[in-house]
Each structure stands twice: as structure tokens, then as C-alpha cells.
Design brief:
The chain is an alpha/beta fold and about 350 residues long. The protein folds into two domains: about 170 residues, Nucleotidyltransferase, domain 5 (2-Layer Sandwich), CATH 3.30.420.40; about 170 residues, 2-Layer Sandwich (Nucleotidyltransferase, domain 5). The protein is built from ten helices and eleven strands. The strands form two sheets. Strands 3-2-1-4-5-11 form a six-stranded mixed beta sheet, with helices on both faces. The chain has a five-stranded mixed beta sheet with strand order 8-7-6-9-10, with helices on both faces. Helix 5 packs parallel to helix 7 and helix 6 crosses helix 8. The longest helix is centred in the C-terminal third of the chain and has 30 residues. It is globular, with a radius of gyration of 21 Å. About 0% of the residues have low confidence. It binds 5'-O-[(R)-(carboxyoxy)(hydroxy)phosphoryl]adenosine and zinc ion. 5'-O-[(R)-(carboxyoxy)(hydroxy)phosphoryl]adenosine (KG4) binds next to helix 5 and helix 6.
Amino acid sequence: MRVLGIESSCDETGVALYDTTHGLLAHALHSQIDMHAAYGGVVPELASRDHIRRALPLTQQVLDQANLSLKDIDAIAYTQGPGLAGALLVGTSIAQSLAMALNIPSLGVHHLEGHLLAPLLEEHPPAFPFVALLVSGGHSQLMRVDGIGQYQLLGDTLDDAAGEAFDKTAKLLGLGYPGGPAVARLADLGKPRFQLPRPLLNSPDLNFSFSGLKTAVLTLVKSQPTLDENALQDIAWEFQESVTEILVHKCLKALKQTGLKRLVVSGGVGANQRLRCRLNAAAGKRGIQVSYPRLEFCTDNGAMIAFAGAMRLLAASEQTAHGQQHASARQDHEVSSVATPRDYSFSIRPRWDLAELQAP
Ligand code: KG4
Ligand code: ZN
């Protein structure tokens, strides 16, 4: 089965083709970073308009790369939520229109499920069950993952997400958008000099809190008589140490609590090299296997949506083959099947809790 995936939840248009027998066939991405940079953050209306411009040319690009045409696609998966409403509407309506015209099924995918499963696109994917650390611009969660759609939330952020903390700290340090890579680049040139707190490091639960850290950075910045390049580098260094120490500590705690020996890291902050270095060192000592997506699949992309959609459609078709109820009866995803009279309405889910997902 060949599944076209379309991602348009925020500031990246991603399109990919995943084949359940041959793996990832092609993927293409257009990042809107340059367009939003002038505003210091994502402008939702500009994002929506740009998705409109990019989605179909990118679709043609992946088809050309794979040497296939539209008639070779068996199903279309698209990001149904969570994300910016206008941006989601673009990907959803394009996916649904294409599916209608081609008379093939379409499936709304949860963006975070895409991130969560992205490491499974790599060679030697980890087996279920595993602990997942999902650290993106909007989320910082620890989960126990027992299979597709079998996610148990172990810990969550009480306020800012890890990526959000990077982005806000970047602003305080006068760096551009997106902040994560900019802070990381600066931090790599820094050295230990300042002291920032490690919020909730030793709390008995697996929750995170990063908003106090950002305030501590602000206080530190204001206390400096001069904010030269060295001071900026050293503040960034200490900030990155704080976030990565907390994330590593809570991952180890989650592994201990669940008794699992496999960890999967996904989401934009998963691209952070200091985090990977610290996690690998800690895991190596304890016989823990850590899996990451390749760097380009840490941040938003179409491949993770095509893959998550393909896994769900595959499971649904296997169930149908076994005479079980078709997945279109499920309420957590819209699955439009050619087997039933088509319902041309569709919806997006800008707010959508991952815990609401069910196994296919
Ligand atoms: O997963 P993602 O592309 O989008 C969301 O679904 O949110 O994550 C984007 C987030 C941003 O906050 C960005 O600053 C952060 O990931 N990020 C990083 C790095 N690369 C991206 N944070 C720290 N270090 C990085 N190298
Ligand atoms: Zn994302």
C-alpha cells in the first residue's frame, strides 16, 4: 500500500510517499522559517497562504522523485491536528479533495503520533514497548508506548514546552527565530560560569516545568553590567545544560519506573546535540537502547505523517481482513472509505489530546 502524507500544522509544508512494503519512497519539505523570521515568530495567516502555494508542487515533486503518478497512490494521510486551524485546513482540504478525486481512502493523523513514530522510519527500529520523550515547540511529554495508538502519558509539562523555553530564551538573548538551533549554536561556544535552576529535577513525578527557567534567564540577563558575546554564550550554555539535565534525568526515571530498556526521542528538541550526547552517555552505562529520528525528521515533516497513516491503515485493513469492524467506525480519526457512500464533509482538530487516540 502506498500512502501519500501531507503535513501542514504549522510553518512547514511536508509531503511524502510511504510504501508499506518498500518503506519511504520520497519526501519533500518547504520550511517557512525565512518568511516568518522578519516577524520573530509564526504568523498564522501567512503560514496558511504559503501552505496553499506549496502543497501541490511538493506533491508533484515526491511523485517525480518516486517515478510514480497520482494513480499509484492507495491512500492519503494528512495532519488533522493539533496545530494552527488555518494551516490544518489547507492540508486537510487538499488531502480530502485529492482522495475524493482519486476515489481512495483518506485518514486524519494526529501530529504528535507522527512525531512519536518518526524514529520507526529508521533502520533497526525499536520494538514495542518503549518509553518516548516527545519534546517539540508545543509539547514536553514522557509516554509509555505499547503499540500504535497505545500511549500512556507518564509526565507532561506544567507550563512551557522545552522547545518553547528554547524559543523564549533565544528572544531574551536577542537571537532569531526559531530559537532552538540558535541557542544551541551559541551554547556550544559557551562554558560553565553562571548558575540557573533545574526546575522539578527531583520532584517525585515525571512532570516538567520550564517557565521559571526562562524567568531566571531574564533575571540573569538583566543582572549583567555588559552583555558581551562571551556572556551570551555562557548563559546559553548554562540554559542548555539545565534543560538537557532535566530531560535526561526524567527519561531515566521513566525507564526505571516502567522497567523498560528502550527509549525513543522525537520532536524538534530531539535534534539538540547536547541532549543526544548526554542521553547516549547515560543510556550506555545502563544498557538502554536510545533511538532518534534522523535530524530532518525531528522537526515537522511529511514522512512521519505518511508513516503514521500507513501504520493505521495497515492495521485497519488487517482487521477488516479478519472480519472485524472497519476502522471508519472509529471516532478518533476520520477515515473515508470507498467501500461506503462517501461523506464529503471534513473537520480539523486544532486542539487534540494524544491521550484521546485509540489503537487502530
Ligand atoms: O517538532 P517541531 O518542529 O514543531 C512542533 O511540533 O512544535 O519542534 C520545533 C521546536 C522549536 O521550539 C525549536 O526551537 C526546537 O524544536 N528545536 C530545537 C533544536 N532544533 C529545533 N531546540 C533545541 N535544539 C535544537 N537543535
Ligand atoms: Zn511538530
